[in-house]
Structure formats: C-alpha cells, structure tokens
C-alpha cells in the first residue's frame, strides 16, 4: 500500500514550523511520516530529509509547502525533484502551486508542462532569495551610513566610566587601571572609549 509523507523545512531554529505543520495535518498525513528540518538553505545538511529519502518507495506521495523547501538554489531544486520523481518514482504535490501535482497528468504533454512550470518557479524562487539577500545588504549599508548601531544592544556604561575615561585620556592612569575601575577587559574598555569619544565629539 502506497504511503503519504510530508516534508517541512524552516530556515533556522528560531523560525516556527507551525504554519506548515497545520497544513500537513489537514492532509491527514500520519505523524510518523512527517519529516522536519530546521536548516538554512545555505547550510543544506538536512538529516531528516535524508532519512525520508531512504524510506520513500515508488508511487508514494510527498507533500511540500513550496518548491524552495527542496533546495537552496535553482540547480539543487531541479536535482532533488529529479531524484524524487525519476529515481525513486514518488508523486509530489506542491501545496502553494497546484500546477505542480505529478498525479494530475502523467502523459508526455502533462510531464512537459510540469517540467516547464517547475523550471520557471525554481528560477523565481532562487532569484527572490538573491533579491532578499541583496536588500538586506543594502539595508545594513544604509543603516550603517546613518550611524545606526546593528547587532545586540550595547551594555550600559558603568557610572564611573566618564571619570575613568577622563583620567586615562589625560594620562593620569593606564588603560589597564581604567578598565579595572570599570570592571571591563582592557580591549572592551578601549573599544567603548573610542565609541564614547566619537559620540561625544571628543578629539583624540
């Protein structure tokens, strides 16, 4: 008897797979046949995907939310589709794209149309991923140009930082002593001192 499977991938451990999981459960896929990976497209070492490939059999049915769950780029998506449909012989249903349902048309024309749709959508998915990375890079560059601090918020300076900074700057104490007064490593004190001087327009 042919089995039904579902594959879910989210791009990081922080992302939530609940939305994909709800859709898979609505398809009445047995819980033991649901495979979930939390791996980015860039790091494509997906243990549960590989485990699923080992147990899939010819004429099984596999559901995925969207084609970009299969690969990190155009070439990889097409390669995984080939492995699944040609080498293993499973049927695939892409939930977000009803045209990509290999059960619908298995004649030459149907296969030809599905292949064209797959190639176009794979290219679109990779192109959109590239555009997102480019927009992120441009956004980061623009934020830095505006002086916006990125990353984790800085810890507040200790109350005695200004006193230690002034004494160190005027040569009254060493950097090591100033850092000890502020309970900071020397490297951290020097880094925060540079930022403090810049933010307060203090000349070197």
Describe the structure.
With 204 residues, this protein is of the alpha/beta class. The protein has 2 domains: 4-132, Resolvase, N-terminal catalytic domain (Rossmann fold); 161-199. Helix content is 50%, strand content 10%. The protein contains 7 helices and 4 strands. The protein has helices at residues 18-26, 47-55, 74-88, 108-145, 161-169, 175-181, 186-199; strands at 4-10, 34-38, 61-64, 91-94. It has a 4-stranded parallel β-sheet with strand order 2-1-3-4, with helices on both faces. β3 (61-64), α3 (74-88) and β4 form a beta-alpha-beta unit. The longest helix is centred in the middle third of the chain and has 38 residues, at 108-145. The protein is elongated. The mean pLDDT is 80.
Offer a quick outline of the entry.
The protein has helices spanning 18-26, 47-55, 74-88, 108-145, 161-169, 175-181, 186-199; strands at residues 4-10, 34-38, 61-64, 91-94.
């Amino acid at each position: 008897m042919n089995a039904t499977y579902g594959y879910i991938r989210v791009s990081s451990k922080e992302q939530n797979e609940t939305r994909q999981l709800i859709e898979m459960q609505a398809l009445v896929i047995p819980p033991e046949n649901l495979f979930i990976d939390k791996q980015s497209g860039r790091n494509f070492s997906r243990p549960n995907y590989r485990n699923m490939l080992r147990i899939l059999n010819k004429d099984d049915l596999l559901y995925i939310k969207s084609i970009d769950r299969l690969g990190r780029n155009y070439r990889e998506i097409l390669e995984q589709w080939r492995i699944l449909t040609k080498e293993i012989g499973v049927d695939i249903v892409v939930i977000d794209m009803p045209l990509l349902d290999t059960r619908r048309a298995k004649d030459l024309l149907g296969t030809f149309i599905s292949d064209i749709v797959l190639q176009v959508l794979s290219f679109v998915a990779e192109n959109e991923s590239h555009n997102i990375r480019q927009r992120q890079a441009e956004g980061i560059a623009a934020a830095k140009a505006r002086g916006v601090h990125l990353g984790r918020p800085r810890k507040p300076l200790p109350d005695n930082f200004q006193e230690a900074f002034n004494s160190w700057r005027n040569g009254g104490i060493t950097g090591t002593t100033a850092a000890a007064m502020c309970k900071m490593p020397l490297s951290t004190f020097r880094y925060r001192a540079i930022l403090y001087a810049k933010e307060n327009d203090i000349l070197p």
